[in-house]
Design goal:
By secondary structure, the protein is an alpha+beta fold. It has three domains: 54 residues, Alpha-Beta Complex (Molybdopterin biosynthesis moea protein, domain 2); 221 residues, Hypothetical protein af1432 (Orthogonal Bundle); 55 residues, no CATH class. It is built from twelve helices and nine strands. The strands form three sheets. A five-stranded antiparallel sheet has the order 8-7-6-5-9, with no helix packed on it. Strand 7 and strand 8 form a beta hairpin. Helix 2 packs antiparallel against helix 3, helix 4 crosses helix 10 and helix 10 packs across helix 11.
Length: 360
């Protein structure tokens, strides 16, 4: 499989098949994996703000390694959407479905103790808040696992991460979905979501105070530059420090109406530049252990000058993936493409990464 921008999809090629299900804002399958991508379906993706998708590669038959089961992601997305709908219409929150979703997410991730956040998800822009929250939850749990958290703490962390943006239910939709930079008054409205979310969760039965702190503090930064209170260092709850890193990582690797996502490699570099200043060093180190810097489907350039598509990422050394060579050092397509395990070739390294191929 390979990751491609929808503008680069050749709909005349009968072999261009979707390799990852695309879920809409309500947790429903917009398009399921295995469907042939026609011009009409590509237009449908564009209309929902889906800019990148995984497609099958004729020569490569590897399955995409799902971090969570599709059913788990759908369950969590739908449960969150109901919570946001309740908040938007002033109804009391019913958290039973959210608790069930948190439990299912934990089961999925704990069953794969060496799982890596490997995918650049094909995600509809219109469903950003809910889909983002599910991904932040999963990544936060992976970081917590890497830090040695027991099941009880992982559950509290997962619940907090899943509900970290629940306060956004009160933000006017024209501000929340604005295409372009927000004005200072609009930013002030958005920043209030942390306080609203904290107050609501604190009042909910079955939600612990540490879980509520995630909603309140996930925009705080170690150097005091965050909000709403400008907390520093250890005054920020550990769960919030974890969710802060997961939140930023997922945000910058996701398409938004006003900007395109950045490659995973650049996102990790961006976070590491703030390690110890804005973000907890231990959390950043744990992120590195749990993120596939060069995710499957991405195109990379090797130190030999050759270009390749990433096939798989070894959990023990995520920076040395298995790749599928497609061009030589001069950029000419190889007549006999081949696989290469970088673990077995220490003299070769990845020197450049891109979001996806432009070959269709």
């Amino acid at each position: 499989m390979r990751l491609v921008h929808i503008d680069d999809i050749n709909t005349q090629d009968r072999n261009v098949v979707l390799a990852q299900t695309v879920i809409d804002s309500r947790g429903r399958a917009l398009l399921r994996r295995g469907v042939k991508l026609t011009e009409r379906l590509v237009d449908l993706l564009a209309a929902h703000g889906v800019y990148y998708v995984y497609v099958t590669e004729r020569e490569i038959r590897d399955d995409i390694p799902d971090l969570m089961q599709e059913e788990t992601r759908v369950q969590a997305t739908q449960a969150l959407q109901r919570i946001f709908d309740d908040g938007r219409f002033g109804n009391a929150y019913v958290l039973k479905d959210v608790r069930a979703a948190v439990g299912t997410i934990l089961e999925d991730l704990l069953s794969r103790p060496f799982a890596l956040q490997a995918l650049t998800e094909a995600r509809a822009v219109e469903g950003y808040t809910t889909a983002h929250s599910v991904s932040v939850c999963a990544l936060s749990v992976l970081i917590g696992m890497s830090l040695g958290y027991d099941r009880a703490r992982l559950y509290e962390l997962a619940a907090g991460a899943l509900l970290h943006d629940v306060g956004k239910a009160t933000i006017p939709r024209d501000i929340l979905h604005k295409e372009g930079p927000l004005t200072e008054p609009e930013l002030e409205v958005v920043r209030e979501h942390t306080t609203y979310g904290f107050e609501w969760l604190k009042a909910c039965q079955g939600i612990s105070l540490p879980t509520s702190y995630v909603a309140y503090q996930h925009h705080e930064r170690l150097d005091g530059s965050g909000y709403p209170r400008g907390l520093k260092g250890r005054d920020i709850h550990p769960y919030a420090r974890i969710t802060a890193v997961a939140d930023v990582f997922d945000a910058i690797t996701t398409d938004r109406p006003y900007r395109r996502r950045v490659p995973t490699y650049e996102a990790v570099q961006s976070i590491l530049r703030e390690s110890g200043a804005k973000f907890d060093r231990r959390v950043c180190a744990a992120l590195l252990r749990r993120v596939a810097i060069f995710p499957p489907g991405a195109q990379v350039k090797l130190s030999t000058g050759e270009r390749a598509i990433v096939l798989a990422v070894p959990s023990e050394v995520p920076t040395r993936p298995e790749v599928y060579l497609v061009t030589d050092a001069e950029g000419r397509p190889l007549t006999r493409p081949r696989r290469l395990r970088l673990l077995a070739h220490p003299e070769i390294r990845v020197v450049e990464a891109a979001l996806g191929t432009t070959r269709s």
